Amino acid sequence: MSAADLMRRLQAAMPAGTQPKFKTADELMAWQREQGRIDSERIIEQNRVARLQNVLGRSGIQELHQSCTFQNYNAELPAQRNALEKSKAYAARFGSGFGGFIFSGGCGTGKNHLAAAIGNVLLSAGKSVLVVTIPDLMMRFRETYQEGANTSEA
User: Fold this and answer.
1) Residues 6+ apart with CB under 8 A from 66
2) Half-sphere exposure (Cβ direction) of 93: Cα atoms closer than 13 Å
3) H-helix or E-strand containing 18?
4) Is the pLDDT of residue 68 over 90?
5) Beta-strand (E) ranges in the chain?
6) Taking every annotated instance into account, which residue ranges of this chain make up the domain IstB-like ATP-binding (predicted)?
7) Which of 33, 46, 80, 107 is the most buried (most CB within 10 A)?
8) Do the Cβ atoms of 7 and 22 come closer than 8 Å?
9) Burial of 120 (0-12, 13-18, 19+ CB in 10 A)
10) What pLDDT is attached to residue 42?
11) Residue closest to 131 by CA, chosen among 151, 102, 109, 106
12) Is the pLDDT score of 154 beyond 60?
């Protein structure tokens, strides 16, 4: 059945006084194409968000630090400004002949913030990221020695 036949049948079945949204089969087809485009864009965006959440979840970046950027890092001390510049340089040159990045320093100096900022830059560029804190690493080691652990020390 053609679209024109369908339109004629729909118009014949409509109650008196009802105005159809579309007057021609071409208008109906154009509307369906537009709705298909809108639905496709929505699904593509949902898939993009789901992939990002999946990657972010596997990255080790804690929820508290997921919005950390270089721009919202508060570098008050010279050592913090130095760490910020080195972090930016690492992110900018990632993959050019060097491996991981380790921060050390006292509590509250912004190590997790900068690690997450680097991770967020790399994730947005499609890279794989794993952020691990020493307490998390030590807990993982400790778990390997517990009876019935899924992971062993080997």
Assistant:
1) 56, 116, 120
2) 12
3) none
4) yes
5) none
6) 100-152
7) 80
8) yes
9) buried
10) 93
11) 102
12) no
Tell me how far apart the alpha carbons of residues 127 and 137 are, in angstroms, rounded to a whole number.
22
Both tokens assigned to 128: 């794989």
Q: Is residue 61 within 8 Å of 120, Cβ to Cβ? A: yes
* Straight-line distance from the first to the last Cα atom of the chain, in angstroms, rounded to the nearest whole number: 68
Residues 53, 120: Cα–Cα separation, whole Å: 12
**Contact (Cβ atoms closer than 8 angstroms) between residue 28 and residue 22:** yes
* Residue 66 structure tokens: 């997921």
Mean pLDDT of all residues belonging to the chain: 85
In single-letter form, the type of residue at position 3 comes to A
DSSP string, 14-47: SPTTPPPS-SSHHHHHHHHHHHHHHHHHHHHHHH
Q: What is the pLDDT of residues 71-130, one digit of tens each?
A: 999 999 999 999 999 999 999 999 887 778 888 888 888 999 999 999 999 988 888 888
Q: Please say if the pLDDT value at position 50 is more than 80.
A: no
pLDDT in tens, 34-45: 999 999 999 998
